[in-house]
Write a structure and sequence with these properties.
This protein has 3 domains: 3-162; 167-228, SH3 type barrels (Roll), CATH 2.30.30.60; 236-321, Alpha-Beta Plaits, CATH 3.30.70. By secondary structure, the chain is α+β, with helices and mostly antiparallel strands. Strand 3 (203-207) and strand 4 (213-217) form a beta hairpin. The chain contains 10 helices and 10 strands.
Length: 352
C-alpha cells in the first residue's frame, strides 16, 4: 500500500469499526441486557451509544497523525484537540451513565420518575463541570483563576438567588425523606388538598379534585403541616355515622348493617372486600341511638363513592326490615299562665 494511503486507511478502518460496534455489537448487547434483571448493563450500553463511534474515529485520526508529517506546532495542537475531544466524549458518556443511575434508583422510591429531573440536572451539571476542568488542564490552561472566579461568582449568585436556592434544597430534602411523594394525596394546613403531581426544583404542584393546580414553593411546603393520606399505606378507613330508633333491636340492627357493609365492600369499586366491617354504638342521642360504621377504601378518594353507595343501600334495607331512622324530635311543655288580679282604672273596682 502506498505510504500516503496509510493514514486514510487508519481513518476508514476506525470509522468502519465504529459503525460495526454501534450498529451490530451494541444492538446485540442491548437485546441481551434487556433479558436480564440487572438494570445497570442497559444503562451502560445506552450511555455508550454514539460515543463509541466518535472515540474510534478519534483513534483513527490519532494513528494517522504521524503519517502526515505536519509541523511540530500543528501536530501538537491537533494531538491536544484529539485528546480534549476524547475527554469530552468520555465526560458525556459518564454524564449519561450517572444521571440514568440516579433516575433508576430514585424511581424505586419515587412513583413518578419524571420528578427526579432536579437530581438528573444536578448530576449532569456536576459531571460536565469537572470534565471541562480536566479538559482545560489537559490543554495547558490554568484552572486556578477559573476556580477562583467560580468561587467568587458562586457566592454572588448564592446571595442573589437566596429564595431560589432555598426552594431547591427544600425540594431535594422533601424528595430525600420521602414523606411526601409524587402521586400521594395530601391536605395542607391551609386547606388545599389533592394529588402531588410533581416536586420540582422550585415548586411543588398539587392537582385538586376539581382538576385545578396549586403551586406551592418548596420552602412553604417544608414548613407547613401536611396530612398525607397515602402513608403509611393508601388504604383508608371510611366512617359513616348512623342513628336508629330507641325501639330498635340493636342486635338485629348490627346484623343487617354489617350485611349491607360487606355487600358494598365486595361490589363497589374502591372497596376492600377482604376487610371485615364493624359498627360501634357510642351515643344515646336526643332522638336516636347513634353508632359508627367502619368501612375501608383503597384510596382516600374512594371514601366518597363508598359512603354514597352505603347510605343508599342501607336506607333501602332498613325500609325493607322495618328499622326506623328517626328524625330529630323535641317535645315542648307550655306552662299555663296563672290568673292575675288588678283594678279597673275606669271604675276603680278590682277585677280578676
Amino acid at each position: 500500500m502506498p505510504a500516503f494511503l496509510v493514514p486514510y486507511a487508519f481513518i476508514a478502518v476506525s470509522i468502519l469499526g465504529g459503525l460495526i460496534v454501534e450498529r451490530i455489537v451494541l444492538n446485540r448487547l442491548r437485546r441481551w441486557a434487556a433479558r436480564t434483571t440487572w438494570k445497570l448493563d442497559e444503562i451502560v450500553i445506552d450511555a455508550l451509544r454514539g460515543v463509541v463511534f466518535f472515540l474510534m474515529t478519534l483513534l483513527g485520526l490519532h494513528l494517522a497523525l504521524p503519517y502526515w508529517h505536519l509541523p511540530p506546532t500543528y501536530a501538537q495542537i491537533l494531538s491536544k484537540a484529539i485528546v480534549a475531544l476524547a475527554l469530552l466524549a468520555g465526560t458525556v458518556a459518564l454524564m449519561r451513565f450517572l444521571s440514568d443511575v440516579v433516575v433508576h434508583y430514585a424511581s424505586q422510591y419515587i412513583p413518578v420518575p419524571a420528578t427526579t429531573s432536579a437530581f438528573r440536572a444536578i448530576v449532569r451539571v456536576g459531571v460536565l463541570g469537572v470534565g471541562l476542568l480536566v479538559i482545560f488542564q489537559t490543554l495547558g490552561i490554568n484552572v486556578t483563576p477559573i476556580l477562583t472566579a467560580l468561587g467568587v461568582g458562586g457566592l454572588a449568585v448564592a446571595l442573589a438567588l437566596q429564595d431560589t436556592l432555598a426552594n431547591l434544597f427544600a425540594g431535594l430534602h422533601i424528595l430525600a425523606v420521602r414523606q411526601i411523594r409524587p402521586g400521594d394525596y395530601v391536605r395542607l394546613e391551609s386547606g388545599e388538598e389533592g394529588h402531588v403531581v410533581d416536586i420540582g426544583w422550585r415548586n411543588t404542584t398539587i392537582r385538586t379534585p376539581p382538576n385545578n393546580l396549586v403551586i406551592i414553593p418548596n420552602t412553604k411546603l417544608a414548613s407547613t403541616v401536611v396530612t398525607n393520606y397515602s402513608l403509611p399505606e393508601s388504604e383508608t378507613a371510611v366512617l359513616v355515622q348512623v342513628g336508629v330508633s330507641y325501639d330498635s333491636d340493636l342486635e338485629r340492627v348490627e346484623r343487617v348493617t354489617l350485611e349491607v357493609a360487606r355487600e358494598v365492600l365486595r361490589t363497589v369499586p374502591g372497596g376492600v372486600p377482604e376487610f371485615e366491617p364493624l359498627i360501634r354504638y357510642h351515643t344515646f342521642g336526643d332522638s336516636s341511638i347513634q353508632f359508627t360504621v367502619v368501612l375501608r377504601g383503597r384510596t382516600y378518594l374512594d371514601q366518597h363513592v363508598l359512603r354514597h353507595e352505603f347510605i343508599k343501600r342501607l336506607h333501602r334495607r332498613y325500609r325493607q326490615e322495618g328499622i326506623e331512622i328517626p328524625f330529630p324530635i323535641r317535645t315542648l311543655y307550655v306552662r299555663e299562665a296563672a290568673p292575675t288580679r288588678g283594678r279597673d282604672p275606669g271604675s276603680g273596682e278590682e277585677t280578676e
